[in-house]
């Protein structure tokens, strides 16, 4: 450097400027992620992303040592072979998840609010500090131990979203038992199937649930379910309402018994790969899959994605409105925020109770900074107009998130423009129950990096997306579509299917050996951004043309609130396109004119072959209570297989199906 500086002062200045800017960038990236200071050659966020992919072990080792509290350190970062479905992270390490979510924060900030329970009754939130949540968890852990629940057992939790449900999950983690949370909208039959498959001897529930102003008899559902579950020895019953329920010899009054327990509960030292929880998700065979997530890798991945995708900072209030019965509730209402010492909202109600301003009134009252919801809810609220949003102060919002399915462009733009006032980044996140946490999202990235409406865009740290063609070959260019796979393991991924590892291998590892097969299709743009095009089993093949249902559903017609598209058997084309369309409240034009308008838009956006053969206008679509559209039900209606519709108890409004059946009968014959 000295020799160079003698010859040319300008060169000396340029080199000085280079090293000064390099130092600033390194400081910036280290401020963004402190671990990056120890990564060779990482001077900015782009280099950090590249390092995390090419040096995955070094990346995750540093993050794990820094962000988790270990009882015993790990000796091997990962031992994985995707071709055989063998996945192990942080081998040799021991920790306790509840300690990482509670005790370590109690030591530093015991009175910080951990949970804000947004009860169904608007305006009646309940705040729970880290100290209080730890005491609740310890009492419940001791109670479970006293009743014979031991390390390795599986406890089924059938509760609404509430602090006691979170304490139940953490109490299981504290004593080394796995939990199996079953969405509290499932029927007795569906609950029983999950209890039996998980081999649970213990169930935790409440007397009644309250949602959208309606009371549901959860204890009665459990009573019916356990009649066909001989392994169940005990049912712990908490009181959500003041209404008494019939108690049997196996029932335990949970809160009453918890008061008898000590507020200190010794945490179990769990191996990194011990089971943390089972979570059942639908499978193509119709039999639910009990996906298994383990301790250290899952917790670390949930925590890191929570902090960096949403730019969560200490003191923020994080508002994930998912039910705890789904993976989103697990990762981003409970484990991610609590591992980060955050304040997380537990939302018990619905987006339109008592009115369509519920979300935004809650944002104003609780001063929520990050809001994470489902596209189907956004489309529903869009239908009610802007005034319900403008009525409330949303100035505390910093990031808006979307989860569960691809978000159409119109809903994205309304979310960004109306809800976020055009100033909040919208992170359209792609991930699955199987992935444990967010894998593709517009953030983290530079603050001024572009965000394209309706695209998940960028892979998270260490995630390496790969697109495959129909012959199983890797597509290396951009501006292509294919089957979405992930080319290397990551800590948050599911390890197996409970009691059926062969099914795990066949579903996720065998289709493309050496890769994790997601079951989704994706498009990679010219710029290298990813857009999810829908489930591959939701792809419609019209005269040899493959169309993702999401491509057709992503309409930009001002009259349409939301839609669901399915394929059906067609004598000439192989498959035809059938569209169910919900219109906005103020739409006057309907019938043939609107059908023609919609077909013209699809023809222009995709191609004529993608135009729906049938368009059925409906008042509402059949959805689960988490907001997922039940396309399986729609498919059965169109196929006239009404006996195959199956259990509708998980739907938010089962009467929607009857209206659709009637409308389908009226429509057939009217359109070609």
UniProtKB/TrEMBL annotation:
Its EC number is 6.2.1.1. InterPro entries: Ac_CoA_lig, ACAS_N, AMP-bd_C, AMP-bd_C_sf, AMP-binding_CS, AMP-dep_synth/lig_dom, ANL_N_sf. It catalyses: acetate + ATP + CoA = acetyl-CoA + AMP + diphosphate; propanoate + ATP + CoA = propanoyl-CoA + AMP + diphosphate. Residues 103-490 form the AMP-dependent synthetase/ligase domain. Residues 556-628 form the AMP-binding enzyme C-terminal domain. GO terms for molecular function: acetate-CoA ligase activity; AMP binding; ATP binding; propionate-CoA ligase activity. One of its GO terms (biological process) is lipid metabolic process. Keywords: ATP-binding, Ligase, Lipid metabolism, Nucleotide-binding. The keyword Nucleotide-binding applies. Residues 47-101 form the Acetyl-coenzyme A synthetase N-terminal domain. GO terms for cellular component: mitochondrion. It holds the Pfam family AMP-binding_C. Belongs to the ATP-dependent AMP-binding enzyme family. This is Acetyl-coenzyme A synthetase. It comes from Cyclopterus lumpus (Lumpsucker). The gene is LOC117727381.
């Amino acid at each position: 450097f000295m020799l160079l500086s003698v010859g040319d002062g300008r060169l000396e200045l340029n080199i000085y400027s280079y090293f000064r800017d390099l130092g600033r960038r390194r400081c910036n990236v280290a401020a963004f992620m402190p671990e990056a200071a120890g990564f060779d050659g990482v001077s900015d966020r782009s280099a950090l992303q590249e390092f995390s992919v090419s040096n995955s072990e070094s990346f995750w080792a540093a993050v794990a040592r820094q962000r988790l509290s270990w009882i015993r350190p790990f000796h091997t970062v990962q031992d994985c072979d995707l071709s055989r479905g063998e996945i192990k992270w942080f081998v040799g390490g021991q920790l306790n998840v509840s300690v990482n979510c509670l005790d370590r924060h109690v030591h530093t900030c015991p009175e910080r609010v951990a949970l804000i329970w947004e009860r169904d009754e608007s305006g009646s939130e309940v705040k729970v500090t880290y100290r209080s949540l730890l005491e609740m968890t310890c009492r419940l852990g001791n109670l479970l131990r006293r009743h014979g629940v031991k390390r390795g057992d599986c406890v089924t939790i059938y509760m609404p979203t509430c602090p006691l449900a979170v304490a139940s999950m953490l109490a299981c983690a504290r004593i080394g038992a796995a939990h199996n949370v079953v969405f509290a909208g499932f029927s007795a039959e569906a609950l029983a199937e999950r209890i039996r498959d998980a081999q649970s001897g213990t169930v935790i529930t409440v007397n009644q649930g309250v949602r959208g102003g309606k009371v549901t008899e959860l204890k009665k559902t459990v009573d019916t379910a356990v009649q066909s579950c001989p392994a169940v020895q005990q049912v712990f019953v908490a009181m959500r309402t003041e209404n008494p329920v019939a108690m049997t010899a196996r029932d335990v009054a949970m809160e009453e018994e918890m008061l008898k327990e000590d507020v200190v509960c010794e945490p179990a030292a769990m191996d990194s790969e011990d089971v943390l929880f089972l979570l059942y998700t639908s499978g193509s065979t119709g039999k639910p899959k009990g996906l298994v997530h383990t301790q250290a890798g899952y917790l670390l991945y949930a925590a890191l994605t929570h902090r960096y995708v949403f730019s969560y900072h200490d003191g923020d209030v994080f508002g994930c409105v998912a039910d705890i019965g789904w993976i989103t509730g697990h990762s981003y209402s409970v484990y991610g925020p609590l591992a980060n010492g955050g304040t997380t909202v537990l939302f018990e109600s619905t987006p339109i109770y008592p009115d369509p301003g519920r979300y935004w009134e809650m944002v104003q009252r609780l001063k929520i900074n990050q809001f994470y919801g489902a596209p189907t809810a956004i489309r529903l609220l869009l239908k009610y107009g802007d005034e319900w949003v403008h009525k409330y102060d949303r100035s505390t919002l910093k990031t808006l998130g979307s989860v569960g399915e691809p978000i159409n462009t119109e809903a994205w733009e309304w979310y960004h423009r109306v809800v976020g006032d055009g100033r909040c980044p919208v992170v359209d996140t792609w991930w699955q129950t199987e992935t444990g946490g967010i894998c593709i999202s517009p953030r983290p990235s530079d603050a001024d990096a572009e965000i394209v409406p309706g695209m998940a865009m960028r892979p998270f740290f260490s995630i390496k997306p790969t697109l495959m063609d129909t012959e199983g070959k890797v597509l290396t260019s951009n501006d292509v579509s294919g089957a979405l796979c992930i080319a290397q393991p990551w800590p948050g991924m599911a390890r197996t299917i409970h009691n059926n590892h062969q099914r795990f291998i066949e579903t996720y590892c065998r289709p493309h050996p050496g890769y994790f097969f997601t079951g989704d299709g994706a498009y990679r743009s010219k710029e290298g951004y990813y857009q999810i095009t829908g489930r591959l089993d939701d792809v419609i093949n019209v005269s040899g043309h493959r169309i993702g249902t999401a491509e057709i559903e992503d309409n930009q017609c001002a009259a349409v609130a939301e839609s669901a598209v399915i394929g059906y058997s067609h004598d000439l084309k192989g498959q035809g396109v059938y569209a169910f369309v919900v219109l906005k409240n103020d739409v006057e034009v309907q019938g043939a004119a609107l059908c023609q308008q919609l077909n013209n838009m699809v023809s222009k956006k995709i191609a004529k072959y993608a135009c729906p053969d049938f368009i059925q206008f409906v008042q509402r679509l059949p959805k689960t209570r988490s907001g997922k559209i039940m396309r399986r039900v729609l498919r059965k209606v169109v196929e006239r297989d009404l006996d195959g519709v199956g259990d509708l108890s998980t739907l938010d409004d089962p009467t929607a199906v009857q209206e659709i059946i009637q409308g389908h009968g009226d429509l057939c014959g009217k359109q070609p």
